[in-house]
Amino acid sequence: MKFIVNNKEVFASTGGRPFDKQKPLIVFVHGSGLSHITWVLQTRYFAFHGYSVLAIDLPGHGYSEGPSITSIEEQGKWIADVIDAVGMKEASLVGHSQGCLISMECAQQFPDKIISLGLMGGAGAIPMNPELLELAEKGDPKAVDLMMDWAHGPSGHFGGHPVPGLHHINLGGSIVINGSIKDNLGVDFRACDNYKNGFEAAKKIKCPTINILGDKDRMCPVKEGKKLAEVIENSEVEVIENCGHMILLEEAGKSLSILKKFIRKNHPPQN
Amino acid sequence: MDSKTYKFDTLSLHAGYMPDKNAGSRQVPIYQTTSYLFDDVDHAAALFNLEQGGHIYSRISNPTVAVLEERVSALEGGTAALATSSGMSAIFLAIMTLCETGDHVVVSSQLYGGTVNLFRLTLPKFGINATFVKPRDTEGFKKAIQKNTKCIFGELVGNPGNELMNMPEIAKIAHDAGIPLVIDSTYQTPYLCRPFEYGADIVVHSLTKWMCGHGSSMAGILVEGGKFDWMQNDKFPSMTKPYEGYHGLSFAEEFGPVAFTMKARAEGMRDMGPCLSPQNAWNVLQGIETLSVRMEKHCSNALKMVEYLMNHESVAWVSHPSARDNPDYELAKKLLPKGTGSMIAFGIKGGKEAGAAFINNVKLSSHLANVGDTRTLVIHPASATHSQMDEKTLKLANMSQDMIRLSVGIEDIDDIKNDFENGFRAARKPKLVANQ
Ligand SMILES: Cc1ncc(COP(=O)(O)O)c(C=O)c1O
Hints:
The complex is a heterodimer of chains A (271) and B (436).
Chain A: E1 2-5, E2 8-13, E3 25-29, H1 40-48, E4 52-56, H2 72-85, E5 91-96, H3 98-109, E6 114-120, H4 130-138, H5 142-151, H6 154-157, H7 168-178, H8 181-194, H9 198-204, E7 209-214, H10 222-231, E8 235-240, H11 247-250, H12 252-266
Parallel strand pairs in A: 3-4, 3-5, 5-6, 6-7, 7-8
Antiparallel strand pairs in A: 1-2, 2-4
Helix pairs in contact in A: 1-12, 2-3, 3-9, 4-5, 4-8, 5-7
Chain B: H1 8-14, H2 41-48, H3 63-76, E1 80-84, H4 87-98, E2 104-108, H5 113-122, E3 129-133, H6 138-144, E4 149-155, H7 167-176, E5 181-184, H8 189-192, E6 202-206, E7 220-224, H9 237-240, H10 251-255, H11 259-271, H12 278-289, H13 291-310, E8 315-319, H14 329-335, E9 343-348, H15 351-361, E10 366-367, E11 377-379, H16 391-396, E12 403-407, H17 413-428, H18 430-433
Parallel strand pairs in B: 2-3, 2-4, 4-5, 5-6, 10-11
Antiparallel strand pairs in B: 1-7, 6-7, 8-9, 9-12, 11-12
Helix pairs in contact in B: 1-3, 3-12, 4-11, 6-7, 15-17
Bound molecules: pyridoxal-5'-phosphate.
Residues 86-88, 112, 114-115, 155, 159, 184, 186-187, 206, 208, 218, 220, 371 of chain B line the site of pyridoxal-5'-phosphate.
């Protein structure tokens, strides 16, 4: 669905069900250069089981009007604006990668708005490889190839998409390429690299939080994810075996069942 | 710093499969089953509602077939693929996924004869009509587009005349009109050309041909490029609007770069069902393992045959994009740098009668209705593959009565040439030796 946030048009997938203000809200926040498409194997379940879902396209990404927002702090604030814009008071957030940083920022800036936090492939800081950052800022497609290489574990490189016939690396790459490498991926990578407030934000988070990590994640390794989890007061950790950074797709089924249990407990659905 | 994602030859062997967790099977297992156990009622419901990935029933998907689909996606650089029981069913499914009754398509006039009949006779029964344009007439494709046109369809190298479509320019024409370009890339395989790199949006293959390569199995596939934006206009309501068949699902909104494949599977496989058998999928996978080495040899043998035929006294003309005097020579160099394929069309002096004598007297070369076998194949299209086309359509396809279509195999080149010598000898005196 399309709606207006801060005078700009925003697109969010509602998981195949009309948005319903009566149901508890979950906002899904995608990673660098990506879009709502990455969440399709989580959103449909929640939308059909008692929740309202918004898998947003960050400004400038997917079908949302640009430009991209340049800092994680402002992106965190923007998520709160989204919740207001759809007329809701509170939500659970689920983030992937950069989306974790954004969700953490939102939760620390607006503690009363955020009921629970699901972090997939998160870390307290996501410093970028300088060469990758430069390639992305120049709009070089090589940045996408490198990102897809590092982001995927064995199933991305060999095969075994949970949805028959889909190809992990080419699908991920096409989401980034269909946007703008320079204006989405470049801006996002720079925002991640600049962001230094992760651990401070994490200390202030009071809502229940789950960290879902992939043991083959080369972008946000398990070690970094666990370091973050230690700082968050009310948090738990689940590590998925043989899984890279694209947890939400590589291990869509396992990550969904972990998320299901966590959200249903901390933010019960409307039956 | 370079990406370490696997390259073409490695993907031909490995893409789509990691050794089986249960038995450690190095080779892809053949999942000879119709159906798959659900964990519980919720799991079944989630699969049926596309909330979760997985297999339900082998008409919709099968784990062996899925390995083939991922492998071909990997080789083509596509986001997703859907394998079918034959090349024809892949083409039919592509059109049924894009078009509604009352729609129109612009089609190259040089196509496999079965495909011509599909567009000329069968699809009109569903209210889908086609305008045929000669493959080299780039502007003609533009002029033929109507308000209700939903795609441009063609074979990069036309069948059987070997004329090229200017794929990059025709892709631009399609995109300016807000419609996708669908390319039948059977003759090229991803080894010779990856059409997504030149603007195609959907690639179809008859895997029956070079991909399987051994003349053993029927199969087809649809591959999606992932760049076409279905939401850019209102031409594809069945892709962008809520679909009643899946609780109001919008394929484009939820699946974006794989929307076409998801719809072709969820609707097409569910309702029409041209599924590929796991055994045939496995046979094709065997073929793909050696795609590069076979294609190299097919192409090098083809070049030698072009030279041989061009210098032969019994040959009136030769059409192959590698020939310097071919109007497509430069375009072929650009689009097909690794080789221009192993299909050669040539005219035999003495017309139809000489052609028949030639075909009846070659022995090593097989006279049959297929292409892309490891073995050398010959046929006289006007009396076989394209015999159901009327005069007008034959003319549009630039097909003459003296044309022989040759699919060069990977035998020793001297043996192929010696075999042809026998054929040509008979063709020079058809009355004496015909039908021996
Ligand atoms: C270029 C081309 N496309 C499609 C087909 C049809 O494929 P199949 O025979 O696998 O149905 C053929 C078959 O000859 C072909 O040559």
